[in-house]
Hints:
Elements lengths: L1 H35 L3 H37 L4 H5 L2 H35 L7 H33 L3
Amino acid sequence: MADILELVVRYAHIASAILWIGSLGFSVMVLRSAISRVAMPARKDTMLQLIPLANRFTPRVAISTIVFGTILYLMMGNFDPQNLFGTTWGRAMLAALILSLGLFVFGIGYVLRAAERMLKHLNEENCTHGPEVAALQMTSSRGQVVALAWGFVILLLMVVATGGL
Ligand code: HEM
């Protein structure tokens, strides 16, 4: 029974992680260059639809990754502080947890906040803040690149720790 539960939690954790880092990868490697090729009125309409959805989806899959990952960590460590903090595996997982929480806070405080501020301008009837919107787009875009690189570091930690660190 415990084995099946662990399998389900592992599946939920990896599926959420794929969606989290995958959504960042898709934004950086596909959407960013596609959107820059779209003419202004259509770009605005696309952003108006895209931002609220992305700003809901990404934090949800991030939370799911962290919650299922933490449950898996506790289960695999048998809830024993010696396994959780006293082994290389345990410390690597703890580092991953701290890095993931940091990535989550960075995503909300930097990337998502810039996108929300951009949305506010785009929703204005006759917005005259073109340069501000462009700067916010750049902030959000750069933040996504940093977040993706950050996510890859955590992924590396996961794979190395799972392989018997
Ligand atoms: C960006 C965030 C994360 C990503 C992309 C990620 C990804 C992954 C992947 C792909 C695996 C399977 C690795 C393999 O089988 O080679 C895994 C396993 C695991 N993850 Fe994460 N993870 C993330 C965050 C977390 C967090 C925050 C925790 C909480 C401590 C966590 C705990 C675990 C545990 C305990 C395993 C199983 C390790 C083992 O089998 O030895 N993960 N993760």
